[in-house]
Design goal:
Shape: elongated
Distance between the termini: 44 Å
Oligomer: single chain
Number of helices: 10
Number of strands: 0
Helix content: over 70%
Order of helices and strands: HHHHHHHHHH
Strand content: under 5%
Largest sheet: none
Length: about 140
C-alpha cells in the first residue's frame, strides 16, 4: 500500500547523519511509479520544507546519486535534464538528442521546451541549433 508520508519519513531518516542508508532509498524509490514518486516529493516538501530532489542529489554522489536524482523527476523534467547534459560542455551527445527529440510527440516536446526554459533559463531550440549542423540539425528542430 502506497503511503507517501511513511515513504517521506523513511527517506528523511535514510539521509540523516553521517552514514546514508542507500538500501532504504532503493527500496522506496524503485518500488514506486513515477506518479507515486511525484506525490512523495510533495509530501516530503510539506513535512520537511525541503526539496527531495535536492536532498538526494546532495547526499548521494556518483552514479547512485544521479540515478536517484533522475528517479524523482517527472518524465518531462528528466528529458529536459538529459538534453541539457547532452548539450552543455565540449561536444554533444547526439544519442541523447536523437532518443528524446525523435521519439516524443509534438506535445511532449513543447512541454520539454517549457521545462528546459524554466529549469535552465535557456531556449532548447537555440541550444540544439547551436550544437548541431546540416541535415541532422534540420531533423531535430523540424
Amino acid at each position: 500500500q502506497f503511503d507517501p508520508e511513511a515513504d517521506a519519513k523513511i527517506l528523511h531518516t535514510a539521509m540523516k547523519g553521517l552514514f546514508k542508508d542507500e538500501g532504504s532509498v532503493i527500496h522506496v524509490l524503485a518500488n514506486r511509479s513515477n506518479q507515486q514518486r511525484q506525490q512523495l516529493k510533495l509530501k516530503y516538501k510539506l513535512l520537511y520544507g525541503k526539496d527531495l530532489s535536492h536532498d538526494l542529489h546532495s547526499d548521494f554522489g556518483g552514479n547512485f546519486g544521479r540515478a536517484v536524482y533522475g528517479l524523482v523527476m517527472s518524465p518531462t523534467e528528466f528529458d529536459a535534464y538529459c538534453l541539457r547534459q547532452g548539450i552543455e560542455g565540449m561536444g554533444t551527445d547526439n544519442h541523447v538528442l536523437i532518443e528524446i527529440l525523435c521519439t516524443r510527440t509534438n506535445q511532449e516536446i513543447l512541454a520539454i521546451k517549457q521545462e528546459y526554459k524554466s529549469k535552465f533559463n535557456r531556449d532548447l531550440e537555440q541550444d540544439v541549433t547551436g550544437d548541431t549542423s546540416g541535415d541532422f540539425k534540420r531533423l531535430l528542430v523540424s
